[in-house]
């Protein structure tokens, strides 16, 4: 009897150990949420993923997004920009620690988690002549914080906070732009009050040519040319644009990596201010949010459509009976 009980106990421990090995621990997202996205299904084109035909993207790489993928955050999105994939989660407005409370507005905190961490990743990037990965992560966080502080109505949420978590899934270039666009979609999904909708785009400059939204291979070619010829432009420009003044986009943030001459900088400025890139990205945001509202449960969209179909002289009472304008 004792031997049979011990065998069952050992079998139970083996099954428990096997389950723990199959579901690794993640400190930010639950195992069932995050690691389901990191399987092969994230490359499939599911029907519920909001997007448009790839041929409609003339300037940037094709975008895809799936909203409300996580249960706990107020807003979340899985966003693709080409092969670059980012998961963004927004918590807020919510309570924060007393040490982080601000008396005049809400606080904004952004945490970026790369796909690969550790000393191996750091040594590989330093050997390739790239930026320290820790510095690059902090730079992405500070960039997103500065943009959100200019976009969100923080004065409406005194002593509260907005927490944004960005998790890199795949990096095929333009990671900063993808993080900004994913954060904006997550804020729209959470219903946060925004002054205007912003979008980000990265331009690669190599000599006299300008590449919009370059991939990782194109960025590597540009980085190899950096520093070789001081008379030519070789760098990356990241623009964050907003359409706050009608259809003319306004530049909210610009960052440069490398060397860009004034003539090429003027060319890039005219390109991003033409409005075509902003309209293309903002149109994609609109399709994502409209589809999320259409298929979400209990959002009142069907109720609004019923009220629009009613006759102008009728209103609906709280008891469900129809009354005329005189209240009879």
From TrEMBL:
Keywords: Exosome, Nucleus, rRNA processing. InterPro entries: ExoRNase_PH_dom1 (IPR001247), ExoRNase_PH_dom2_sf (IPR036345), PNPase/RNase_PH_dom_sf (IPR027408), Ribosomal_Su5_D2-typ_SF (IPR020568), RNase_PH (IPR050080). One of its GO terms (molecular function) is RNA binding. Residues 1-11 have a biased composition (Basic and acidic residues). Its main location: nucleus. Residues 60-191 form the Exoribonuclease phosphorolytic domain. GO terms for cellular component: cytoplasmic exosome (RNase complex); nuclear exosome (RNase complex); nucleolus. One of its GO terms (biological process) is rRNA processing. Residues 1-25, 304-328 are annotated as: Disordered. Residues 12-23, 307-328 have a biased composition (Acidic residues). It is found in: Nucleus. Pfam families: RNase_PH. Belongs to the RNase PH family. This is Exosome complex component RRP46. It comes from Orchesella cincta.
């Amino acid at each position: 009897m004792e031997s049979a009980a011990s065998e069952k106990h050992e079998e139970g421990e083996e099954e428990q150990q096997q389950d723990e090995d199959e579901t690794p621990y993640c400190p930010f997202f639950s195992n069932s949420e995050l690691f389901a996205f990191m399987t092969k299904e994230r490359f499939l084109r599911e029907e519920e993923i909001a997007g448009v035909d790839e041929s409609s993207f003339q300037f940037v790489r094709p975008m895809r997004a799936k909203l409300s993928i996580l249960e706990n955050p107020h807003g979340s999105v899985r966003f693709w920009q080409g092969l670059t994939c980012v998961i963004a989660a927004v918590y807020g407005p919510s309570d924060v620690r007393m040490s982080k409370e601000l008396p005049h507005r809400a606080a904004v905190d952004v945490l970026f988690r790369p796909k690969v961490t550790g000393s191996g990743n750091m040594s590989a990037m330093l050997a390739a002549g790239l930026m320290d990965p820790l510095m690059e992560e902090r730079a992405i966080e500070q960039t997103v914080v500065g943009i959100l502080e200019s976009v969100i109505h923080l004065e409406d949420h005194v002593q509260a906070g907005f927490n944004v978590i960005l998790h890199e899934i795949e990096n095929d270039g333009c990671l900063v732009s993808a993080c900004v666009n994913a954060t904006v979609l997550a804020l729209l999904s959470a219903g946060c009050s925004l002054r205007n909708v912003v979008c980000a785009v990265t331009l690669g400059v190599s000599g006299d040519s300008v590449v919009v939204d370059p991939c990782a291979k194109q960025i590597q070619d540009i980085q190899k040319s950096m520093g070789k010829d001081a008379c030519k432009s070789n760098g990356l420009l990241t623009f964050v644009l907003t359409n706050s003044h009608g259809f003319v986009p306004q530049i909210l943030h610009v960052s440069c990596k490398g060397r860009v001459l004034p003539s090429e900088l003027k060319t890039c400025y005219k390109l991003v201010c033409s409005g075509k890139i902003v309209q293309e990205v903002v149109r994609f945001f609109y399709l994502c949010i409209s589809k999320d509202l259409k298929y979400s449960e209990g959002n009142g969209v069907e109720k609004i459509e019923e009220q629009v179909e009613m006759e102008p002289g009728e209103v609906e009472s709280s008891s469900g009976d129809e009354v005329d304008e005189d209240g009879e």
